[in-house]
Amino acid sequence: MPSDGVADQLPRRNPPACSHHRLAAARPPDTYCASQTPRVPPSGPPAMTFSPNIANLRPSATIAVSTLAKKLRAEGRDILDLSAGEPDFPTPDWISEAAIEGIREGRTRYTPAPGLPELRKAVAASLGTGIPAGWDLTAESVVVTSGAKQALFNACFALFGPGDEVLVATPYWTSYPEIVELAQATPVFVSGAADRGFRLTASDLDAVRTPRTRGLILCSPSNPTGTVYSLEELGEVTRWARDNDVHLISDEIYRKIHFGDAEGEDAPGILDLEPESVGSWVLVDGVSKAFAMTGWRIGYSVSAPEIARKLSALQSHTTSNAATPSQVAALAALTRTERAAADIRDMVAAFRRRRDLVVRLFREKLPQLPVLVPGGAFYLFVRVDGEFTEAVPDSGAWCSRVLEETGVAMVPGAAFGDDRYARLSFASSDEVLEEAVRRLAAR
Asked: What is the pLDDT of residue 8?
């Protein structure tokens, strides 16, 4: 196995020395008590030291795999990169033109920290259409962020701290536990049954709840599984969070990429529930996935105004506002609704066709690798542990072997908290997907 394979590129989480590892790490190792014999400083430049806040921080595993795939391709390898976490479609021209026009009009200066007032209003309007009565969504509930990842970061830093436990639904997006730990809280992983798409029930949550449980992070449609909670299942989870005084962070960034029965139907979200069934909540969304705008870096959080004010205050001391031209582009995406709906409909139709194609090909050509049929997003979660051996003992080694032998880049399930699987993105052309399965089957 090559030394520069996926397993070697994957960041590893170092186990804490004790349950209070952040406190234990607070005193740097080169400090000493007065009773100790002073040590002679070593010769040469001082050793580099870092904050204990990042002692166990790992870089993004998905980015690591994508970077490796690009490196191998630059070296002349024929690589099929199925690790991507973004649509392969370009940003619609009319959105880009709106940003260009805004730049020409001089819309390049600071905005308020929580975003352009008209964009915040547009977000509230886009989410408030067709939801049950009783929700009071206004611009004051919205904070525009530099990508949905910052919205998650803001929420965790505002709501959690040392001693708090945050339940993370597993399999999880790779950044969730890292963000929780950066907030000096402790991630606690909880998984539903695989045969029901890992969707959580109140019983699953009761099994891991402690007096320190403070939050729950949920993603539907899920990255990496594509699992979608029904409205009833989502209501069970939100009522549990409400009844146990747990903050719910609902990541709904893939909600428009939904393969439901009705064309153009969003995946169920917390705002589709009756408001009395939801306690303390933060909804995280953005324009990256639905509008193919990943590089524009516009996300947003929606919450009760008293929470939103804290999120805005925090952001005012980090990034201030999201990039103004990007906000102008997002405003066009959310207000030119007919054009947006048509583009999203076409993109989702393409993803649905690719989903059906790759599921069929795996079942026909690779029956030894079972797949979870996704109800949304653009990922296929593939069960690979049936091919583990002494030489290939885990998902990282399996993905390394596959990349070396076939040139197909996938993300190990260990990056998402379940080592039995690997994630394949079908945000690629039909031809690439067909060739990838052909190579995998020819091993």
From this structure: 58
Closest Cα to residue 156, out of 141, 170, 177?
Answer: 177
**Predicted confidence (pLDDT) at residue 178 exceeds the cutoff of 50:** yes
Task: Give the CATH architecture of domain 1-46+58-85+337-443.
Answer: Alpha-Beta Complex (3.90)
Question: Which class for 50: exposed (0-12), middle (13-18), buried (19 or more C-beta within 10 A)?
Answer: exposed
CA-CA distance, 174 to 169, in Å (whole number)? Answer: 11
What is the rounded distance in angstroms from the CA atom of residue 391 to the CA atom of residue 412? 16
Angstrom distance (rounded) from CA 298 to CA 415? 25
H-helix or E-strand spanning residue 9: helix 6-9
State yes or no: pLDDT of 164 exceeds 80.
yes
Which amino acid makes up residue 248?
A: L
Does residue 16 have a cis peptide bond before it, meaning omega lies within 30 degrees of 0?
Answer: no
Share of the chain above pLDDT 70, in %: 90
What is d(CA 344, CA 288) in angstroms, rounded to the nearest whole number? 12
Fold match, 1-46+58-85+337-443 / 106-335: no
Task: For 418-433, write each residue's pLDDT tens digit.
Answer: 999 999 999 999 999 9
In this structure, the strands spanning 371-372 and 379-383 are: antiparallel
Average pLDDT in the 328-344 region? Answer: 97
Cβ–Cβ < 8 Å for 270, 281: yes
End-to-end CA distance of the chain: 15
At the top level of CATH, the class of 106-335 is alpha beta
What does the domain layout of the chain look like in residue ranges?
Answer: 1-46+58-85+337-443, 106-335
Cα–Cα distance measured from residue 122 to residue 142, given in angstroms and rounded to the nearest whole number: 10
Using one digit for the tens of pLDDT, what is the confidence trace for 84-137?
A: 899 999 999 999 999 999 999 999 999 999 999 999 999 999 999 889 999 989
Q: What is the pLDDT of residue 11?
A: 52
Contact present, 149 and 223 (Cβ < 8 Å) = no
